Amino acid sequence: MDFYKPSSLPDLFEIISRLEGRKYFLAGGSDINVQIKNKIITKEPVVYINHLDELRGVRDDGDQIVIGALTSYHDLISSPLLLKYIPFLSEALRYFASPPLQNMATIGGNLANGSPTADITPLLLVLNAELKMMSKSKLRIIPLNGFYTGYKQFDMKYNELIGAVIISKKATSGYRSYYRKVGSRRSLTIAKLSLAGLKKMSGEQIVEIRLAAGALNEYPRRLARIEDYLTSRIRSELDWQEIESLLSKEITPITDLRSDSEYRYQVCLNLIKQFVLD
Amino acid sequence: MKISFRINQKDVSLDLDPMRRLIDVIREDLGYTGTKESCGEGECGACTILLDGFPVTSCLLNAIHAQGKQIHTAEYLAKTEKGKLLIDCFDETNAVQCGFCFPGFFVSSYHYLLNDGEPNLEKIKYALSGNICRCTGYTKIFEAILLACDRIKKQV
Question: Is B127 on the interface with A (CB under 8 A)?
Answer without folding.
Answer: yes
